[in-house]
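Worked Example 4.2. Consider the chain below.
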Amino acid sequence: MQFLPIKINKFLLFTILLLALIGLGDAIFLIVKHYLGAIDCAIWSGCQEVLISSYSTLFGVPVALFGVAYYLFILFSALAYWQTNKNLFANILTFVPSFGFLFSLYLIYLQVFIIHSICVYCMLSALSSTLLFILSLIIFRQYKKTI
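Applying the procedure from the previous section yields the following structure tokens:
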């Protein structure tokens, strides 16, 4: 399999690591609250409605657990790239955030139009995912300038 020869500068890589850690912490928090069955929303109400909705699980698995897996995958890929500079990990960091972003859009749609409640913690995850996607676009744009 051929990988694109992408190089990621250290500032972008550090920012990716930071965003992945924020997203991971948020997703772990949501997992804990899912299993405890209660969540407090300090900014606006709606978190509990989202947490107990039928959309909070996918195939019987809490959606936040998919978030944990996603952010761990990004985090480990960024750390692996930091250590090895291998194109495989650069390609993961360039293309995988697109899937996280699209899934976040779907979850926001569910909150706004189906559940009619917004969870601030879910929105933090969506923000982290969106920023990771924007960074992946920046990385891809830098790659396109080099060819």
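The chain has a mean pLDDT of 93. Helices lie at 10-36, 47-52, 63-84, 87-115, 120-146. Compare this with Example 4.1 before moving on.
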